[in-house]
Amino acid sequence: MKAIIGLGNPEEKYRFTRHNTGFLMMDEVLRAHNITLSDKFNSFFGKSGDVLYLLPKTYMNLSGNAVIELMNFYKLTNKDILVIYDDATIEFGVFRLKKSGSFGGHNGVKSIINRIGTDVFDRLKVGVGLVPPNIPIDSFVLGKFSADELQGVSKMAQKTVEVVDCWLKEGIEKAQNKYNGKII
């Protein structure tokens, strides 16, 4: 079994913020794979065959609680998950797929690392733009995308479907070779 996990915050007020990029990308993945979600693992949860889809409702800083619950229930290892999330250290429209790494200041990833006990897991970091000078990172990532940016977000979400399908069928290395870099 494999799990695709999108990070975000469940309240509507966060829907189109940069920090909700994982949820926004997952919306398109779920649509493309015709996945219906239910409430399980303190998350929005879906399953199709041997693929699990998870959007934690724990809020970003406690994402690891939902992830470990899913992993324990399905007996997944750290090599069975792909985590999709925003990265404010990467230019808007750029994807970075990695097999491991630090949390890089992202509290959702920090929570996952702390709960599963390793920083070795596949991840798709979605560039939401660099934090402008003199703006606190919290304000930036909790800020909403502009209308122009939302068009780019839509294109990134469509490309995320391809990334997820590649990761599921061919693994992280092939996905890295095909999709690391500028997407829009």
3D architecture notes:
- The protein is an alpha/beta fold.
- The chain contains 6 helices and 8 strands, in the order E-H-E-E-E-H-E-E-H-E-H-H-H-E.
- It has a single domain (2-182), classed as Peptidyl-tRNA hydrolase (Rossmann fold).
- A hairpin with a 2-residue loop joins strand 2 and strand 3 (43-48).
- Helix 1 packs across helix 5, helix 2 runs parallel beside helix 3 and helix 5 packs antiparallel against helix 6 (172-179).
- The mean pLDDT is 97.
Write a brief caption for the model.
39% of the residues lie in helices and 24% in strands. By secondary structure, the chain is an alpha/beta fold. It has a single domain (2-182), classed as 3-Layer(aba) Sandwich (Rossmann fold).
Topology:
Blueprint: E1 2-6, H1 21-32, E2 38-40, E3 43-48, E4 51-56, H2 63-74, E5 81-87, E6 94-100, H3 107-116, E7 120-127, H4 137-141, H5 147-170, H6 172-179, E8 181-182
Parallel strand pairs: 1-4, 1-5, 5-7
Antiparallel strand pairs: 2-3, 3-4, 6-7, 6-8
Percent of residues in β-strands? 15-25%
The number of domains is 1
Task: Determine the mean pLDDT.
Answer: 97
Major sheet, described briefly? Answer: 8 strands, mixed
Give me the CATH fold name: Rossmann fold
Please identify which CATH superfamily we are dealing with: Peptidyl-tRNA hydrolase
Shape: globular
The helix-and-strand class reads alpha/beta
The CATH architecture designation is: 3-Layer(aba) Sandwich
Distance between the termini: 31 Å
Report the helical percentage: 25-40%
**Going across the major beta sheet, what is the strand order?**
2-3-4-1-5-7-6-8
Characterize the quaternary organization of these chains: single chain
- CATH hierarchy, class: Alpha Beta
